[in-house]
Amino acid sequence: MTISWPGSGNTFPDRLLYYSAALLPYLTVPAGLYLLKSAWSAILAYQLGMLLFLLVARRPPRQPEIVRRRAPRRWTAALLAACLSSGLLVLLIWPWAGRLSPADLAVWLSRLGLAPKTWPVFIAYMCLTTPWLEEQYWRGWLGRLGRPAAETSAWFAGYHLLVLMPILQPAWLALVFFSLTAAGWSWQRLSGFRNGLLWAVLSHSAADLSVMLAASWLLRT
Question: For residue 45, what are the contacts with CB-CB under 8 A and spacing of at least 6?
Fold first, then answer.
C-alpha cells in the first residue's frame, strides 16, 4: 500500500496524514519513557513509527531548480560547527539549567534502563540510527508536504521537551525549543540542495553525539 500525495499539502487527507505523522513522537516517546519506564521502548517505538510512515507514503519530489544547486559551503561548515559544539554548551549551562545533580541524573537514567553498562550501547545506537531516520522523516518527507518549514521544525523541536522536562529548568526548555526549531529549519533548507540530506544527517549525528558525550561527562563528575 502506498499513499500518494497531491503535493499541495492543503487538502484534508494531506493535513490529516501530516499531523498524524507530526504527532508520532508525542505519543511513542512519552509512552516509552513514562508508562513503560524504558528509554529503549521509547526510541524503538518512535523509530518503528517513522519507518512505517516512510514505507507507506510516497515522498514528494524536491524542486528541480534547488536540487541542481550545491549547498553553500560556509553555511554547511557553520552548521556542522554549531552542532559539534552543542555538547560544550550543555556543559556550560548545566549548573544553571539542570534540575538534577549528576548523581540524580544517573539514577534517572538507570530507572529508564540506561545503566552504566548499557549507556555506551545506547549512545552508539542513537547516533547511528536516529539522525538518519529523523532526517528522512522530518526533512525528506514531512518537510516537502507543503507546510511551512518553521511549522515542521517546531513540531520536531517540541517532542524533545517531553524528554527533557524532568532534567531541565522550565526557562531553559524554551531555549532548547528555539534552538532545535532553528536547527530543524536549517536542516530543512539544507535538505533541498544536492546531497543536502547527507549533510543534514551528518550534522544531526554530530549534534546528538556531542550532547550524549556531554551527558557522559556529567555522569562521571
Answer: 28, 29, 31, 32
Instruction: State pLDDT tens for residues 10-39.
Output: 677 778 889 999 999 999 999 999 999 999
* Cell reading at 9: 499539502
Task: Answer whether 112's CB lies under 8 Å from 33's CB.
Answer: yes
Percent of the chain clearing pLDDT 70 (strictly above): 90
Distance of CA 99 to the CA centre of its chain: 22
| The dihedral sign for the CA sequence 9, 23, 54, 126 | positive
Show me where the domains of the chain are located: 72-220
Pick from 112, 179, 138: nearest CA to 25: 138
- Residue 7, pLDDT above cutoff 70: no
d(CA 71, CA 68): 10
CA atoms within 13 A on the CB side of 71: 23
Q: Looking at this protein, which amino acid is placed at residue 76?
A: T
Q: What is the dihedral of CA 96, 102, 106, 112, to 10 degrees?
A: 0
